Structures are given as C-alpha cells and as structure tokens.
C-alpha cells in the first residue's frame, strides 16, 4: 500500500473488488448456460422463439460487457500497481498533484459498456483509489522512511570503512605468537576488525581489537598462539567474535564444491559478513594489483556484501584493498579454511548503533 502525506493507494481493496466482480461473472455464466441450453431454445412455438432470440441478444451484450470489464480490470490493476511502485520509488518527490494526474490517466470504462444494464463499474474503484490513510499506514510509512535512510547511511559507512595492515598506529604492534607485527601477519586481525566495525556500526581500530583479543584469550585460559600461532587462525577469530560480541555463526565446508556459494547466499540472507583465508597456492586470486605480488602465506580477508554474483571484499594486505570485487567462482577457489559467516540476530544489525568517528 503506497501513500503520500494523507493519501494512499489501496491496492488490496481494488483486488478485492476485482474478486467480487469475477464471482459475479461466474454466477452470470451459470445462468447464461442454463438459459442457452434450456427448453426455450428448442421450443417450436414462434412467439416463444422470438422471445428467446430477443433474450439471447441481451445475454450476448451482457457477456461482451463482462469480457470488456474483465479486460479493463486487468489493465487497471496493472496500472495501479505501477503507480504504487512509482510512488514508493519517488518518495517525497511524488506529491499529491502527481498522484492525481496519474490517477486521471488510469483506464476507465466507456459509458454504456454493459448496454441495457446501465452499470458504471468505474465508480467502484476510480473514486476511491485515493483516500484517507489510517494511523497505522502513516506509522508504517514513517518507519519505512527511517529504515531506508539508515540503510543508505549504513551502506556508505561500510563502503568507507577500511584499514590496511601497514597503516596508522597499529602497523608495528606485535600481533602473533612468533612476534610478528600487524603489518606482517595481522590480516586476520584486521579482517575481524572490519567485521565488528561494519556489522555493529563501531569504529575500533586494529590495535584496539588486538588488545581485546589478548584479554579474551586470557579470560578463556588461552595463549596468544590459540588465535595467532603465526598469522591468524580463522576459527579462533570467529569464536572471539561470537563470545565477545554475540554474533551468530555458521561455517561452510571448504571441500564442498558449493560451499562458497552457500556462504555468500547466507551472507546475503542475514546481512552478515564472511571471514575466510586463501592459501599461498591461490595467490592468483588474491594478490596486490599494483606490485602484482602473490601472498607468500595464507591470507585472511572478509566479504561484507554481494549482489548474488559479485562479492565485495576488504583485503587489508594489498594496495587499494577496500571493496575489491570478486566473482563467486573466484571465491570458491579460496579453500584454505572453511567459510565462516557471522551475523547478528537483530532486525538490522548493520544499523543497530551509530558509527563513531574514526579519528
């Protein structure tokens, strides 16, 4: 049901009226069949035959009228549905004057289309297409406008948020159990930072999540090597996100030929993200386009969006690594570890908090 200010297109009511019309047409069809196949047709009396012929002509006009009205209903409903989509798409740019001008263009029944019945069906719908909006509809419209605005802001937030391993205050911070830094081995750390920041609307930096990981591991009785033995261990990073931030998680088998596609579909369904890792033998997929260097070890990235065929990835280890596009088939080649999909069981997890400024 589309609306503007205090106006609404009540498409369900129009469809209900069409259903009532079809029921009337069905009842007439039964009566017409009884008349056509009854005694009067076969009667030899001249006066009765003349009366039958006159009635038959009337029935023909009614049948033609029903056919014309049925065609009109179909066209009318289609055009009204199109008008509804236009109002929804145009939002505040589609004012009451625009609605009225579009309504005036809707197909109408010609006068006398039903012949002797003299029935103007157009009044049933045309005069009621634009009417008062209930308080519930007004509330639903405002809620939809807020949702669309927040979704737009969230998408812009996700597009703009990106950390590279070698940037900022974190590049030389020790990360893994071998003493390697975030610059050298923190791809998994930065990827899980992207997950937390994007899905929760936060603004943590990689070295801040690094401190959280250390504290989490200590609370669990783990060493640093549990999640970062040398580089990153993706299942442990996913476990951290579930424990610390309450994410839901589902893993998809790296050896399943359809595992990557299933993971991408789950990400799209839940509004979540995927964290996964490529082995060095898959460097032809994930490599720095400027230097053309392959990664010498396994490399962790995160996917945050998809249109179904293209997957948008944030790669912290390469130049220009924000929002890199890969096909699902390319993602399917990355099978160093299982695909871990993380999301929040909230109406819109991406929009749940106001992003804080990245200073």
Walk me through what this model shows.
- The chain is α+β, with helices and mostly antiparallel strands.
- It contains 12 helices and 9 strands.
- The strands form 2 sheets. A 6-stranded antiparallel sheet has the order 4-9-5-6-7-8, with helices on both faces.
- The longest helix has 45 residues, at 46-90.
- The two termini are 44 Å apart.
- 30% of the residues are buried.
- Mean pLDDT is 75; it is low at 1-7, 109-134 and 347-359.
Sequence stretches where pLDDT stays below 50 over 5 or more residues: 1-7, 109-134, 347-359
Main sheet, how many strands, which sense, barrel?
A: 6 strands, antiparallel
Quickly count the domains: 2
Count of individual beta strands: 9
Order of helices and strands: EEHHHHHEHHHHHEHEEEEHE
Average pLDDT level: 75
Helix share of residues?
Answer: 40-55%
Class inferred from helices and paired strands: alpha+beta
Judging by the overall fold, what is the CATH architecture of the largest domain?
A: Alpha-Beta Complex
CATH H-level superfamily of the largest domain:
Phytochelatin synthase, N-terminal domain
Strand order of the largest sheet: 4-9-5-6-7-8
- How much strand content do the residues show? 5-15%
Which CATH top level class of the largest domain fits? Alpha Beta
- The CATH topology annotation of the largest domain reads as Cathepsin B, Chain A
Total of helices: 12
Shape from CA axes? rod-shaped
């Amino acid at each position: 049901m589309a609306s503007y200010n205090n106006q609404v297109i009540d498409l369900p009511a129009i469809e209900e009226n069409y259903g009532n019309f079809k029921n009337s047409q069905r009842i007439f069809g039964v009566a017409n069949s009884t008349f056509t196949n009854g005694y009067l047709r076969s009667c030899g009396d001249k006066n009765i035959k003349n009366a039958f012929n006159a009635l038959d002509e009337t029935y023909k006009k009614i049948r033609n009228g029903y056919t014309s009205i049925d065609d009109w209903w179909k066209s009318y409903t289609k055009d009204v549905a199109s008008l509804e989509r236009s109002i929804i798409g145009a939002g505040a740019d589609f004012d009451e004057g625009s609605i009225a001008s579009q309504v005036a263009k809707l197909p109408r029944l010609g006068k006398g289309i039903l012949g002797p019945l003299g029935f103007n069906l157009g009044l049933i719908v045309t005069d009621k297409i634009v009417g008062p909006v209930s308080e519930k509809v007004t509330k639903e419209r405002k809620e939809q406008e807020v949702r669309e605005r927040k979704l737009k802001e969230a998408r812009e937030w996700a597009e703009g948020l990106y950390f590279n391993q070698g940037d900022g205050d974190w590049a030389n911070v020790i990360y893994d159990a071998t003493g390697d830094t975030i610059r050298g081995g923190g791809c998994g750390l930065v990827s899980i930072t992207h997950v937390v920041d994007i899905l929760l609307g936060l603004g943590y930096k990689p070295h801040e999540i690094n401190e959280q990981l250390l504290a989490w591991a200590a609370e669990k009785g783990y060493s640093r090597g549990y999640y970062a033995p040398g580089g990153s261990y993706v299942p442990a990073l996913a476990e951290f996100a579930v424990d610390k931030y309450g994410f839901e998680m589902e893993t998809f088998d790296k050896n399943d030929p359809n595992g990557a596609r299933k993971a991408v579909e789950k990400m799209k369904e839940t509004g979540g993200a995927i964290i996964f890792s490529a082995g060095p033998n898959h460097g032809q997929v994930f490599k720095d386009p400027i230097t053309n260097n392959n990664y010498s070890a396994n490399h962790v990235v995160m996917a945050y969006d998809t249109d179904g065929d293209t997957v948008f990835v944030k790669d912290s280890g390469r130049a220009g690594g924000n929002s890199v596009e890969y096909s699902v088939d390319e993602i399917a080649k990355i099978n160093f570890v299982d695909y871990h999909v993380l999301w929040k069981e909230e109406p819109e997890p991406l929009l749940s908090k106001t992003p804080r400024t990245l200073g």
